Amino acid sequence: MKSTVSNLQGSLFRSGIFFSLWLVAAEASVSAAPGDDLVFFREQVHPILRENCLKCHGEKVKGGLVLTSRQGVLQGGDSGPAVNLTDPESSLLLDMISYRDEDHEMPPKQKLLAAEIEILTKWVVKGAAYAPELEQETAGEEHSASGYLTEIDERTRNYWAFRSIAPPDVPSVNREGWNENPLDALVLSKLEKAGLEPNPPATRQQLIRRAYYGLIGLPPSIEEVAAFEADESPDAFEKVIDHLLSLPQYGEKWGRHWLDLVRYAETNGYERDGPKAEAWRYRDYVIGAFNDDTPYDQFIREQLAGDELPEVTTESLIATGYQRMGIWDDEPADPDQAYYDGLDDVVSTTSSVFLGMTVGCARCHDHKIDPIPQKDYYRMLAFFHNTLNNIQQRQFKKSPYTLNTLRVIADEAEKATHAAEKAKHETQLKQLEQRVSEFEKIIAKQFSNPEKEDAKDRRTRESLYRKKRAEVLDESQLEDYVVAKESLTELKRKRLPGLTSALSMRENGREAPDTHVLIRGNAHAKGDLVQPGYPSVLGFRDPIIPPAPEGVESSGRRLVLANWITSPENPLTARVIANRIWYFHFGRGIVRSPSNFGQNGDQPTHPELLDHLATVMIRQGWSMKAFHKTVMLSKTYQMSSQGSEKGLAEDPTNNLFWRFEMRRLTAEEVRDSILNVSGELNLKMRGPSIYTDIPQEVLATASRPDNAWGRSPEKERSRRSVYVYVKRSLHEPMLKAFDSADTDSTCAVRFATTVPTQSLTMLNSEFVNLNALRFAERLRREAGDDKKKQIELGLSLVLNRTPSNAEVSDGLAMMKDIQSKADLADSQALDRFCLMALNLNEFVYLD
Amino acid sequence: MMNEKPRNTFCGQTRRDFLHTMGGGFTSLALTGLLAKDGFLNQQMVAADGKTAWQSPLQPKQSHFLGKAKHVIFLFMYGGPSHVDTFDYKPDLYPLDGKTIDVKTFGRGGHKKQGRVVGPKWQFSPHGQCGKNVSTLFPHLAKHVDDMAFIHSMTADSPIHGSAMLMMNSGHLLSGRPSLGSWVNYGLGTINQDLPGYVVMLDEKGGPISGAKNWTSGYMPASYQGTVFRPKGTPILDLKNSRGMSAKEQRALLNHLNHFNESHLADRVDNSNLAARIASYELAFKMQTTAPEAVGTDKEPERVKDLYGINEDRTNDFGKKCLLARRLVERGVRFVQIYSGGAHNDDNWDAHGDLERNHNYHAGNTDKPIAGLIQDLKDRGMLDETLIVWGGEFGRQPTAEYAKGTGRDHNAYGFTMWMAGGGIKGGVSVGETDELGSAAVRDRFHVKHMHATVLHQLGLDPNDLSYFYAGLDQRLVGVEGAEPIQSII
Q1: What is the structure's pLDDT at A456?
Q2: Interatomic CA distance for residues A259 and A279, integer angstroms
């Protein structure tokens, strides 16, 4: 192939069409007989369509477009009519096949031949005649009945999750004590109907262990177990619950649940995986909110609109960091699309976390399963449309949505101190500059003419000063100059610490931009204009957005959304949170898919119970602590987890709650419990995150192994897992091994896998081995030299109960056996025993 | 009716049931399936409906249809090799060297309409029966062109490393999705219980950008994520006791651990998770011998080591990894990914500065080992069932990135990948870029078509293999679906 530069250029313009449209048009005006048009269509046009287009726009209905009939052509697809009869040359179909615009190139596999494009162009210009015998009805798999109700009508409005919450009639049941709490009556009545018995109560030891891990994520001490076992007062368990709810560790445990839901992480992901400055303040806010028992409705309002509230507080500003926790590409291939990806993150997370609705599925088209039209997605997006989406900018630098996400939250005292220091710094700077400049003026006087010219460049000037200073200045001047110059450089380098700031939400101004439906979710294909609105199926009136208070640079939209989400009339919010809390206690929700209450989620096993709990949630002022008490004081919560023959045979998945479900400790609980047993756990709260010791092999998987992870002082490394730095591209291996949450999108349900690599971690990792040694040290310290006492104490620390005699002798036998087999000293045998104890199933499973 | 769910079943369960499984507390059965093969847990297994036996996530599964390939070795040329300097011969490009021409490009430096051509820096010559033109960068690989299928018209959605890596590995620009290897293990399970089903080997210089995101299982359970294997030292994290405990001692410890755990289990026999955990310790113990055995490339005959270039300094590292890949595949590992290049800049194929130096280095390190891998697999009759995939996250532009020098910017408009083995046609080339190699113009294929081809060769229907998450049946190839590249099958 011989090409010259110029014809190469020609062929490289992918948008180029090598014939002129006016020629075709002129031709069309001469011969316009419909008969000819049909022949032309049959012989020339249709073969091209059949060969290149009809597979996706006939057999399938991609982009909503069918090209198997004239009507289909004129009607067009998601992007609009394929052919425009009044202005044929501007027809979308021609735009697409001529590859004029990168986002719209059809057929995607390769551009049609120029001759083919010419034929189709001619066809369009002549009015797109379609031979009737070649027209086809479309099968259209995308349009086939899915069996789901996606229309907004009486039936879907009456779907259980969309109906108003109604306190159920509570049946009366035939079992002593089960009528007191309606929750129990609702559970038992179902069991009675199925002919199943609820399990007997768990033992006191099982119950207190369950409650401790359930509320604070840590085990009870031996003394606490003993005290509870001995407490015969009727409110013994209530006292335990009250105690636990008063501990700050409660916020750490439940805050972690929330952090899973809001995809909490301290980096942005992608190539640089850059840090989200001050993200940890949001983590502390969440922990604090649980500890303070911030009512759930307020908790929502703060996170969605903490900057638009009538009373903005430091805490409410930090709370809006919720909207900043998502992944964020600082170097997107398509910045506009990435901007909408950022908004999508907030829309999808907000709708699934607070409402249990998968609104995110309607970004590109109407929801395929639930009655959520695409328009609703963009109505929801409109609430957030005035927000910004950047942290550190590269390509986004020049775009309109560039404003810093950090907000100063310093108090007046800090500001005053800061201002004083700044003033001091500036004065010093000025003085030094003046001093330096005096000397430099002297040196500059001695510059030759060419040097004067060169000195216009700052760098050259500096090097000239350096070169000439010794010959121009006398000794004492020189010394003064050098000292002043150095001090100046140092002072300039020293940056004053900034004011305390928070990662937070901030809008562009009081006016929100127009929001359009984006066709196929494409940021470059704007459709109809929409206004902020709620999912239509819920039947609420469209909101009127009152302007934000004077002086607030915000549209006020998010506050309206937050108020709607938290209004008692909202059918979803209370159901969703009640179900979540239930799931965290019982290991499964009444709706097993806690973030999807739609038709493709799970239907509630106990709809009346769910409504009862939602009612309780609202009635108790959205207090989570009160809700915990309601649930935990029930008979249902206090049942044993023991299997029963009938239960296992007839309801093996425990659909009816005939027993409490055993569960494995979460990743954080495993790590914290190991530290707790070894006596190393540091309960220090709050502050910037900590870095655990990560093995070199794991760091080597990062693209910058030396900068992949930080280092915290030893004592800090033993803090609770909720304080471990969350980096998107490098997971803490111990936590990851035990199924910590993936952080890229909301995580509603944790997996609990069992794989051999976990066993390798528990047997071989330095973390577990080191703590086993410390555990052994502790036993020697607290139980003395008596092996039996060491084992008794060791087992009771791990199992949170008094070990049986048999278990103690098994422990002794273990030590003796391993000692003889591996020729170990007594102390080493105890080390091994401690390692074994940390590996016990009973250590990581709760009854 | 609201409650009718006519479509979408997974492994005989409705996907809803499967979701329960994954999310509702029955999730720890990953292992139960592994053990089921030994009949270990048959007694304890409880199915979701109480009747059917449990399907574990990692149990070997029936593919959708009989696939040609059983294993995949993905040779990831991280950073983006230049197609016009390797396999996509552009004779017209040489004389244009240094000339500024009009050409639409999009790379790290943004959208450009003009650029200074950098003529290909290596000569091409035809090879094999098929006469495929290959550049002098790959003298050894050139001998195998009759076994290779070249796709010259690959396209991707992003010319930026971060998102492009995610796309090549997980089919999507946004992170959070499972990677190809996870999908394969999810779809087919693992064959060997003593080794991970999805192994990743990284460059000596470091991992690729985004690290573990590239082999994540995303929204699937962690059991499907890639396990990083090291060709030197201890192959898997925590495979050796950090305090040097001997195997004998460990065995004794495990015996006593089992004793305790069994008495705990006695009152809780219905909880298969507990039994699974007991067994997981036995598997872990076994893995401590099988994994080091698998990495024992030293025991291979000298002839084989020579084949992979292990006895030469340059090719030693990548050669070992290729040989290890063969040994892993031989032992049943389903998916192996090897990175050529790591970390940043010229530590990988990202030749922004000196193209010649960069590509001579990386090609020189990998040419012989990869050729050796193809030959070795062929000699052992394993090539038919092992699919090799070669490529980076994108290609490179025909023009220079800067005013001076030979560096090329990224190019996702068109680039080359090749496949071999696993039922792929040899000696074929499909698709074309334009005369400059700036963009694919003929038979354009997207990353998802490559993914679809891999799944298809393994006997999985890419449009059918789905995982229910966030209210959707998620697929590797996306909601729109994608067909495999028929012309190379």
Answers
A1: 85
A2: 12
Instruction: Nearest by CB to B202, from A701, A733, A773: name it.
Output: A701
The answer to whether B29 contacts A588, with C-beta atoms less than 8 Å apart, is no
**What is the spatial distance between Cα B368 and Cα A35, in angstroms, rounded to a whole number?**
65
Q: Pick the residue from chain A with its C-alpha nearest to B282.
A: A756
B200: alpha, beta or left? (left if phi > 0; alpha if psi -120 to 50): beta
- Do both B371 and B306 map to the same domain? yes
Please name the amino acid found at residue B199: V
Contact B260 A273 (CB under 8 A): no
Per-state percent for chain B, helix, strand, coil, to nearest 5: 35, 20, 45
Residue B94 near chain A (CB below 8 Å): no
B338 beta partners: B75, B201
Q: Is B319 on the interface with A (CB under 8 A)?
A: no
Query: What is the ipTM, given to two decimal places?
Result: 0.83
Nearest to A673 by CA among A800, A829, A832: A800
Q: For residues A36 and A58, give the distance between their C-alpha atoms in angstroms, rounded to a whole number.
A: 25
B66 assigned to some structural domain: no
- Give the SS3 label for residue A75: helix
Asked whether residue B438 carries a pLDDT value surpassing 70, the answer given is yes
Q: Does residue B245 share a domain with residue B139? A: no
> Which CATH number belongs to the domain containing residue B418 in this structure?
3.40.720
A345 HSE (CA, 13 A, CB side): 27
Q: What is the count of structural domains for chain B?
A: 2
Q: Which of A753, A818, A830 to mutate to test the interface with B (most CBs of B within 10 A)?
A: A753
The answer as to whether B2 is a domain residue is no
CB pair distance less than 8 Å for A8 and B28:
no
- Of the pLDDT bands very low, low, confident and very high (cuts 50, 70, 90), residue A15 is very low
Pick the closest to residue B365 from B296, B318, B307 (CA basis).
Answer: B318
pTM, 2 dp:
0.83
Least confident residue range of A163-177, B150-164, B278-292: B278-292
Q: Which of A358, A642, A847 sits opposite B470 (nearest CB)?
A: A358
Q: In the predicted model, what is the mean pLDDT of chain B?
A: 86
Q: For residue B382, give both structure tokens.
A: 């394993």
Domain of B363 in residue numbering reads as 71-233+297-488
Phi, psi dihedral angles at A502 (to 5 degrees)? -130, 145
Of A447 and B198, more confident: B198
Whether B4 is covered by a domain: the verdict is: no
B90 part of a folded domain: yes
Residues constituting chain A? 847
CB contact under 8 A, A592 and B256: no
Whether A487 has its CB under 8 Å from any CB of chain B: the answer is: no
Lowest-confidence pick of A599-608, B370-379, B453-462: A599-608
Structure-block tokens of residue B297: 């490339």
CA distance from start to end of chain A: 77
Q: Which positions in chain A touch B173 (Cβ < 8 Å)?
A: 329, 333
Answer whether B48 touches A (CB < 8 Å). yes
DSSP B71: E
Using an 8 Å Cβ cutoff, are A250 and A215 in contact?
Answer: yes
B25 and B78 fall within a common domain = no
Angle in degrees, CA A833, B32, B329, rounded to 5: 100
Quote the CA–CA distance of A757 and B283 in Å, as a whole number: 9
